[in-house]
Amino acid sequence: MTSNNRTQGGKAFGILKAQQETRLEEVNKEFLTDEKYMDIEDIEEKLGSCKNKFMEFDLNDQGEIDMMGLKMMMEKLGVAKTHLEVKKMIAEVTGGNSDAICYRDFIKMLLGKRSSVLKIIMMFEGKANDSCPKPVGPPPRRDISSLP
Predict the structure, then answer these.
(1) At what angle do helices 103-111 and 43-57 cross, to 10 degrees?
(2) 42: alpha, beta or left, given left = phi > 0 and alpha = psi -120 to 50?
């Protein structure tokens, strides 16, 4: 094999991510044509958001969020969980059939009627980001008399 045929580092990672995004887009198309989900408002936007969130935490690019990926997601959302709690969350989403959350289970959990701990946390995270705009620029100047 010549060095021109090999891809390494960032280029290989980019190719992997592009392939993963294509696979997830195919699953999204299935949900767009599924009658069970037709009545969901802004479904295309929600599926796009699901895809981006899923890709961020699919650490090994295998199409699943494993225990470490979910643990990392919870920590990033500010809701750190123990390994046992993460295992229970995965079992709740997958019905106990797997040690990792596949993309289809992830979408069904977020778009479905059933409530789960992970769905509640992610919904809360989305609402918290929408309702609390982060201040921009330097903090206002204060003097000693204005301090509590």
Answers:
(1) 130
(2) left
